[in-house]
Amino acid sequence: MVEETAIRVQINAAKLAGQGIFGILQAVASMLQARQYGQQSIQSLNRQSQALASVELNDKTLPYVRQQLKEYSVDFAITKDKDTGQLNLWFKGQDVDRIQTAIENCIAARGKERPTSLLQELSERAMQRTKELNQHRPPSAQERGERL
Question: What proportion of the chain, given as a percentage, has pLDDT over 90?
């Protein structure tokens, strides 16, 4: 009698624990699905607690760069200066390599169609700007333990 009651309690506890774990996994899965990549507002980029960098863009290169950045899952924002009409591409400093690769792919894809001096200039400005930002960046904390 006592053994049957103890077994029932253990079964009920296991069911409750399983339901709790399942609920947690569902919440994590929904958060991952809701995560947004690609073009965002400048405010949502600021909320991600990462240092932002910017590069000036041209109206002609914007669609090609935007397409490549979406393919590489880069979080970016595009703003337009009201006075000068200049477009700025804002991105997180940690995405410099992805930005460089995306711009190089734009240059390679568009190289056959027309001169790519605008894209090459954009790539050079992005690299220069990120070098400036990385000089002021504090060194990353060393990892603990052995790397596998």
Answer: 0
